[in-house]
Amino acid sequence: MDICFSQNEARVVGCLLEKEVTTPDQYPLTLNALTTACNQKSNREPVLSLDEATVLDTVEELKSKRFIQEVTAGQGSRVAKYQHRFCNTEFSTFQFTKQEKAALCVMLLRGPQTPGEIRTRTNRLCDFADVKEAEAVLDGLAEHAKGPYVVKLPKETGKRDFRYMHLFSGEIDLEALAEQAAAPVAGGSSPTSQRVAKLEEEVEAMKLEIAELKDLLESLTS
User: Fold this and answer.
1) What gap in Å lies between CA 105 and CA 122, rounded to an integer?
2) b/e per residue 19-41 (b: at least 16 CB within 10 A)
3) Are residues 147 and 170 located together in one domain of the fold?
4) Which InterPro entries match (predicted)?
5) Dist CA 73 CA 95 (whole Å)
6) Which of 128, 146, 188, 200 stands 20 to 30 A from 216 (CA)?
């Protein structure tokens, strides 16, 4: 693909995709609302602290690339609002299913994800029956006839699941990642270190579940 979003561009597009579904009454977004969405502390990796001028510059770049459209709030209004033209509109090259769009949205906002993370973190955007269905959607995006749109990353040492990453921010050096993943870790072959790695993986899974429960509680009380 010829698309290579910067970190800020990926964040802005991801926010517009997300808010289109989760807060339709507020979409399209004003500059202030878009800036707030970009700087959210939940559902964002990394957490950013962008000012409105930076977000506006990013919006202008995306407008020039025809990924964002500016609209007015109503007849006679001078308040500018912004909506994406990234996918699933009459102006878009990309047409994705609801699940594909949700998975890409989460990766634009949070970077590489496992199928389990995609299934959990898209709960406000779409429904997945199970992790296998999420994995099938990700594999479909990786093998898409007009793609690929995502890539399956080499498995990290001590990790059980593969992660996937979108390709809208440029190609990914899989060979370098594979070499890094295969590099021996000091003491990594001992039974004790294996148990520690397993415990660390279980703790990370618990942290993920707790974070998602907090996000769900926040969405229910907001």
Assistant:
1) 9
2) bbbbeeeebbbebebbbbbbbee
3) yes
4) DUF480, WH-like_DNA-bd_sf, WH_DNA-bd_sf
5) 26
6) 200
